Amino acid sequence: MNFLCSWSGGKDSTYAFFKAMKLGYKPKVLLNVMNELGERSRSHGIPKGILQAQSKSIGLPIHFFSSSWGDYETNYIKHLKEIARQYPITHTVFGDIDIEFHREWEEKVSKAANLKAVLPLWQGNRRELVLEMIDVGIEAIIVSCNEVLGPRFLGKIITKELVEELENMGIDACGENGEFHTLVVNAPFFKYRLCVEILENQQNGNYNFALLK
After folding, report:
1. In CATH terms, is domain 2-118 a member of 3.30.420.10?
2. What single Pfam family name could you report for this chain, choosing any that match (predicted)?
C-alpha cells in the first residue's frame, strides 16, 4: 500500500495524493518528468526549484528525469523500475479523471515496473472534484493557459467564483482539456504555504505561461 505519486505540482495530482492517503495508501516518493533541458516540468512548465519546494513542504523526496515526448514512455518505465528498487512502493498514484487512454497508459507503465496504478479521482464529476479540492483546503493558482483565457488569468487562485466564471466562458472547470494548468501553493498535507511570485508573463504559440519564482 506504499505509493509513488506522479506529481505535476498541480491540483489534480495533489488531490489524488490526498485521496489516496484517505484510502489508506502511504506516500513514499514523488515523480516529475522535466523537459529536455531539465529546467521546467514537461506537463505544466513549473520550474524545478518550485517542485522541490513543494516536496520539502510535503516532507517527501522527489525524483526527476528529463525526457522528450518521443522517448517518454521508455524513460518513464526505466525510472519507475529504478525508484521501485530504492523505495518500498507497491502502487503508483495518478490524477487523471476520465480520459481512458491516459488510464490505459498509466496502467501499462506501472505494470511494466511491477506496480499497480491507482486513480483516486477516476470517473469523478469534474466540477464537483474542483469544488471538493477547494473545500479541503487545496490552494492552486493558474500558471499557464490557452489564448481563450489569455494572460489575465495567470496567477488567479482557483476559487468557487472562478470556477463559475470559467464555466460561463465555456471552459472546463478542471481544465482537463488542456485549457489551463495550475500550481498548488498549499494543501492539507503541506507543512507550510509556498510563497510564489510571478515575474512576468510569457507566450509560446497560443499558450501563456507565468515565469515563476
Report:
1. no
2. Diphthami_syn_2
Class of domain 127-212: alpha beta
Q: How many CB atoms lie within 10 A of CB 193?
A: 11
Q: What's the predicted TM-score (pTM) here?
A: 0.95
Q: Which residues contact 104 (CB under 8 A, 6 or more apart)?
A: none
164's enclosing H/E stretch is helix 160-168
Q: Please, which residues have CB within 8 angstroms of residue 165's CB and are 6 or more apart in sequence?
A: none
User: Rounded distance, CA 154 to CA 2, Å?
Assistant: 35
Contact 61, 37 (CB under 8 A): no
CB–CB of 134/173 below 8 Å? Answer: no
Coil/strand/helix, residue 186: strand
Classify residue 70 by burial, with Cβ atoms within 10 Å: 0-12, 13-18, 19+: exposed
The C-alpha angle with vertex 53 and arms to 6 and 92, in degrees rounded to 5, equals 15
Number of Cβ within 10 Å of residue 72's Cβ equals 14
CA–CA separation, 99 and 176 (whole Å): 9
Give the start-to-end residue ranges of the domains of the chain: 2-118, 127-212
Assign 73 to helix, strand or coil.
Answer: helix
Question: What distance in Å separates the CA atoms of residue 11 and residue 62, rounded to the nearest whole number?
Answer: 17
Spatial separation of the C-alpha atoms in residues 168 and 44, rounded to whole Å = 24
